[in-house]
Amino acid sequence: MQKSAKNVTVEMMNLSEESKSLLEGIPLLTVIMMARHHRLAPDKDKVCAGRIFYKKFGKIKGWVRRDIYPYGRRSDISNSIVRLGCEVNRYLKREDLIKDDADFCNNQRFVISSKIWALRNSALTSSPILHSDNKYSYWSLACHLDCDQYESWEGYSDQALTKIDEFLISHLSPYNYELLSYRYGLKDGKFVSRKDVAAKFGFNNETTAANYERKALKELHESLDDFLALTEIA
After folding, report:
1. Can you state the angle between helices 76-94 and 46-61, rounded to 10 degrees?
2. What is the mean pLDDT of residues 92-116?
3. Is the pLDDT of residue 153 over 70?
4. Model-level pTM?
5. Residue 23, φ and ψ in degrees, nearest 5
6. Is 184 helix (H, G, I), strand (E, B) or coil?
7. Is 2 exposed, middle or buried (0-12, 13-18, 19+ CB in 10 A)?
8. Please, are residues 163 and 211 in contact by the beta-carbon 8 Å criterion?
C-alpha cells in the first residue's frame, strides 16, 4: 500500500507540545501540503513563513496581526510557526512523503508538463512569461496539485501530450507555434531566454521578441476555454 499524507496523524509525527498546540483547530493535511509546496519553513524565511501561515490560519486561531509582527519584530508565535515547519518537513522527509527539486527535474514528462502549465498561465493573460528557469515552472505546477495528484501524478500522459501538441498546431499559425514551442520548451522541457528567441527568429532585440510572443499568446487566447479544458489536471 502506497504511503499517503492523508493517513498521517499528529501523534505519528512526534511533534513538540508547542507545535501540537499551534495545530489545534487547523487541518493537518493543509499544513502538510503547505510544506510540500515550499510555503512553510524551512524553505521560506521566518518572516515569510509567519506571514503565509497567518494569512491562511489567522482567523481560525483568532490572532491579530500584531501577534505575528509586534512592533515590526517577530513574535513568539512567528518563531513557533518556524519550528512547526521544521518538524513537519523533517517528518515528511523521513517518511519519503515530500519531494525535492530532483524528484521533479529528473522526470522529463513532468518537466514538459510544467512548461505546458507555464504556457497555460501566460495564455490566460496574453502576457509573456517573466521567468526562464526550470525551477519556477515545475514548482509552479506542483503548487497546484492536491494531495492525491502530488503523490501519484507524473505529468500529462503521452496521449494527453499528443493531443495538446495537435491542438496547438491546429489553433496557431506555424510561425507562432514554432515560437511558443521554442520559447517555452514544449519539446525538450527547457525554457529559452528572449535573447535566444531574438537570435533564432532574427529579431533586432529582446523587446521585439517579447512583442511577437505576446501576439502568439493572443492568438492562443482566442481558443482559451478549449485549451484550459485540455490542459486541466485530472
Report:
1. 100
2. 94
3. yes
4. 0.87
5. -85, -5
6. helix
7. exposed
8. no
